[in-house]
Amino acid sequence: xxxxxxxxxxxxxxxxxxxxxxxxxxxxxxxxxxxxxxxxxxxxxxxxxxxxxxxxxxxxxxxxxxxxxxxxxxxxxxxxxxxxxxxxxxxxxx
Length: 94
Known about the structure:
The protein is α+β, with helices and mostly antiparallel strands. Helix content is 52%, strand content 17%. It has helices at 3-6, 16-29, 48-61, 75-82, 85-93, and strands spanning 38-45, 66-73. The chain has a two-stranded parallel sheet. Strand 1, helix 3 and strand 2 (66-73) form a beta-alpha-beta unit. The longest helix has 14 residues, at 16-29.
């Protein structure tokens, strides 16, 4: 996508402070703010290449009234819960 088109999408303006101000406005419209923050859990594979970006995301979310906690997930735990039911059954049989 050309950079000039990308800059028209919400959150993709190169001005990070502007993007965060817009995000805070959205959160405030939804009833969140400094004294009423949204609590979420961020699940990530428990290996550095996935865990470290999740930690950075969590830090950035703080700027827009979102308090996140990291839930590291071991690889063997990811497959069964993330597969559609039919694939999950097939995975269990093998």
